[in-house]
Design a protein that fits this description.
191 residues; mainly alpha; Serine Threonine Protein Phosphatase 5, Tetratricopeptide repeat; 2 domains; 11 helices; globular
Length: 191
């Protein structure tokens, strides 16, 4: 199902409908940064929330504002960092795993798409250390999600590793608590 936005530009971005979004923005280019009245999401946040790489690239190429936050004080980078496999993805991977390792290749494809989405957003002027209403940065979320492929991308852009969220945890504290050894080693090496 997914989210339903009151703003057509946000709905098109969330749904991955690049043609519809193009038509909306051609008619009124100022809608590129329109914010939904219920969530505060912009089309860029909506696209990142649903992992729509082509829509995200299109919006970034057309100078969508990466600094805008929604009502939860989250930027597009927060949503890229929070992305995880859906229940359907896990189901498909587990069903296809015994069949010529198709599930493994599906998993690798999903992980590559996450890396591409993160790289696209990081290529913009996004605030890498933006803090949401829970005090979390993008680095907190990739540590929570065990996204060991995304951690180095954030560290390469000098993401702060010492930011404490409202629970008093740094990204390293989260990785230690969840016993994500590979991420713990990356963060310790950075410090």
């Amino acid at each position: 199902m997914g989210l339903v936005y009151s703003e057509p530009a946000c709905q098109a971005a969330y749904g991955g409908d690049l043609q519809q979004l193009y038509g909306i923005l051609k008619e009124n280019p100022t809608l590129i940064d329109v914010q939904d009245q219920h969530t505060g999401d912009t089309p860029l946040i909506a696209a990142c929330r649903n992992g729509n790489l082509n829509v995200t690239k299109y919006l970034l190429n057309n100078k969508a504002n990466t600094q805008l936050t929604n009502k939860k004080q989250r930027t597009c980078l927060h949503y890229v960092s929070k992305r995880t496999l859906s229940l359907l993805d896990y189901l498909m991977i587990s069903i296809l795993m015994p069949i010529l390792l198709l599930g493994y290749f599906l998993l690798l494809q999903k992980q590559r798409k996450s890396v591409e989405l993160m790289e696209a957003v990081l290529s913009s002027n996004v605030n890498i250390d933006a803090i949401d209403y829970k005090g979390n940065t993008a680095l907190h979320y990739v540590c929570q999600r065990k996204s060991h492929r995304l951690v180095p991308l954030l560290l390469k852009r000098n993401a702060k590793t010492d930011v404490r969220n409202k629970d008093g945890e740094t990204p390293l504290d989260i990785a230690i608590r969840l016993q994500f050894t590979k991420i713990v080693n990356m963060l310790r090496k950075e410090n």
